[in-house]
Automatic annotation (TrEMBL):
Swiss-Prot/TrEMBL keywords: Lipid-binding
Name of the molecule in the record: DegV family protein
MF (Gene Ontology): lipid binding
Keyword Zinc carried by entry: no
Species assigned in the record: Clostridium symbiosum (strain WAL-14163)
NCBIfam families in UniProt: DegV (TIGR00762)
Pfam family, one: DegV
Length: 287
């Protein structure tokens, strides 16, 4: 049985990487000053942050139903089934749209609602590809991905409160006070949504909080103090040098773990702005 793996660009997988891996990547659309752009098609990471610096009006959108159906129909001419992995249903309506559309495909399209985003969503796509290679069908792959969906964790610290204020996630008064006190909030994504986790005074302190939180999760949730049974990942918004430095800090604690670095999903970056750092962990599948 031949199974296609589909995800969206929120996974951080580029079009070029998708072709190399054998994963189809659906580009996410953005509205910028009234014009539509598609991530990694007509909108690069550099262009996105350039428009953000110009204070343009940027909002996220979701792929049109027509584009999804056309993609699935084209793939089903070659494949027996499809595993479609959208971003978390708690962060976008694109998952619910895909679930609704899949009802018309007689089970040949299995939409995975495992509450992942960015580097953790990327890992889901890689896991799906591995399972497909082992001969598992789309229904079996979906079951595993949804059953293990909560076995991931993300912590993010932001460099500026401007975009959290702009998106209505904090009040103008809280943003003004936080800016005055130079606070660096630490946020977390545990499946459904972006939540507050802690407050730090400096980026150094915020990184320390994130590292401690990841260590705690590995030890208490997955009994993996050394990180040998876990994928560790770093994501960033337009600050690769800081991400590389953070990787070195993590490697001192987890020397036997491969640590992947990716730009953070633009759908998340839209709400937190440039200069943000994230640490994520995903428990390795035992297939």
């Amino acid at each position: 049985m031949k199974i296609a793996v589909v995800t969206d660009s929120n996974s951080g997988i580029t079009q070029a990487q998708g072709k190399e891996l054998g994963i189809t990547v659906l580009p996410m659309p953005f509205m910028i000053d009234g014009n539509e752009f598609f991530e990694d098609i007509s909108l690069t990471q550099q262009e996105f942050y350039g428009k953000m610096e110009e204070d343009m009006d940027i909002s996220t959108s979701q792929p049109s139903p027509e584009s999804i159906v056309e993609l699935w129909e084209a793939l089903l001419e070659e494949y027996d089934g499809i595993v479609h992995i959208p971003m978390s249903s708690g962060l976008s309506g694109s998952c619910q749209t895909a679930l609704m559309l899949a009802e018309e495909f007689d089970g040949r399209v299995q939409v995975v609602n495992n509450h992942r985003i960015s580097v953790t969503q990327r890992q889901s796509a890689l896991d799906a590809l591995e399972m497909a290679g082992k001969g598992m069908d789309a229904v079996q792959i979906k079951e595993v991905l949804e059953r293990t969906g909560s076995e991931s964790t993300i912590y993010i610290t932001v460099d500026t409160l401007k975009y959290l204020k702009k998106g209505g996630r904090i009040t103008p008064a809280a943003a003004a006070l936080g800016t005055l006190l130079r606070l660096k909030p630490v946020l977390t994504i545990q499946g459904e949504k972006l939540d507050a986790f802690a407050k730090a005074r400096t980026m150094k302190q915020a990184k320390s909080m994130m590292i401690s939180a990841i260590q705690h999760d590995l030890e208490t949730r997955w009994d993996d103090k050394e990180g040998k049974k876990t994928h560790l990942e770093i994501a960033h918004t337009n600050c690769e040098e800081a991400a590389l430095q953070l990787k070195e800090e993590l490697l001192e604690l987890f020397p036997d773990t491969d640590i992947h670095i990716d730009p953070l999903s633009l759908s998340v970056a839209c709400h937190i702005g440039p200069g943000a750092l994230a640490i994520a962990a995903v428990k390795k599948l035992e297939i």
